[in-house]
Amino acid sequence: MTTVAPVYLDNAATTRLDPEVLDAMLPLMTEQFGNPSSIHNHGRQVRTAIEKARKSVASLLNTSPAEIFFTSGGTEADNTAIRSSLETFGITHAITSPVEHHAVLHTLEHLQKQGQVRLSLVNVDDRGHIDLEHLEKLLRSFPRSFVSLMHGNNEIGNLLDLDQVGRLCRQYDAIFHSDTVQTMGHFRHDLQTLPVDFIVGAGHKFHGPKGVGFLYVNAERAKIHPFIYGGAQERNMRGGTENVYGIVGLAKALEIAYRDMDAHRQHITALKQRMIEQLIEKMPDVRFNGDSANVDGSLYTVLNVSLPASDMSDMLLFNLDIAKISASGGSACSSGSAIGSHVLAALPGLDSERGYVRFSFGKYNTAAEIDYTVDTLVGLYQKEARLV
């Protein structure tokens, strides 16, 4: 077995910064240092960079720059959409699913505990798919709800038909927010045709910087109050001095992602298919969770693997780490955590004795890294068999 370690297969958690992005950011970290709210030349120069970045993001998403608001990341963008919608529109009922990211699920659960909203969870099937018939039943019972359903699941790779759900929400006058953090930069979003009210992005998920994201707000349907007060930044929508070099880096990263999307998708899909085929060949009892092994019908960057029941299942991530392979046992924001996955827990019939690991791929991964990872997994289970 050829050693290529260290191997990074946790790209759903974060991605390596693209050198082109760093080059775009550096001038804003050095000589272009003015406060963008200042009216003098130093400030105007930086303000111009922010608005150029906003126009770039809006152009890629086929929307107006006036509908793009920069945030500290996907979590803040989700919180802004949720909390500000409930406050602005006086919405008292929300619908989400048990497999959402905690940025959405925990926020809505907290608001329910505070008595600010009544929360309904739409059913999911044994593969984690949203039950659209149940969703419509909920909408029929609670029209004008706030609906939050993610586009691409960060753990099991399932994709939601945003157009279908959006049209259903419009039918019942619901506000529709989708956490698109995992699909932004990997799928194209045409906001002129997509019936959504809010979508979000986080720069570090598509080879941009950490600590910066954005929120799209449909200006015709969802003009909301701010979530963070304190200044007139972001056209009075988000108080606080802007993360200028982060914003410029995010825009550059999204530009690169769109420019190279077809080539990167082809490369990453081939790596994912390679891992699936090798695991099936070398570990006959391997299984795949959700839709993640549906190469053409899932989030192509994610593969959620269920490995044979073993005494070392609880130590799986530790053993991979010892072999210098970085992967995750669940949510991207809980990498390395021993806490069980709420997404997997929501899928009926999963065997708690099996080992679960999420591999997530990026444009910098190689076929040699996939081969090394599979061989390492096989070796770990063969070693245990010899010890029994």
General shape: globular
Number of strands: 12
Query: What oligomeric assembly is this protein in?
Result: single chain
Unreliable stretches covering 5 or more consecutive residues:
330-338
Cα-to-Cα separation, first versus last residue: 24 Å
| Rounded mean pLDDT score | 94
Instruction: Write down the Rg.
Output: 22 Å
Summary of the model, kept short:
With 388 residues, this protein is α/β, with parallel strands linked by helices. Helix content is 40%, strand content 12%. The chain has helices at 19-29, 41-61, 74-89, 102-113, 132-141, 162-171, 233-236, 244-259, 261-282, 316-322, 342-345, 367-387, and strands at residues 7-8, 68-71, 93-96, 118-121, 146-148, 175-178, 198-202, 213-217, 287-288, 302-307, 325-326, 355-360.
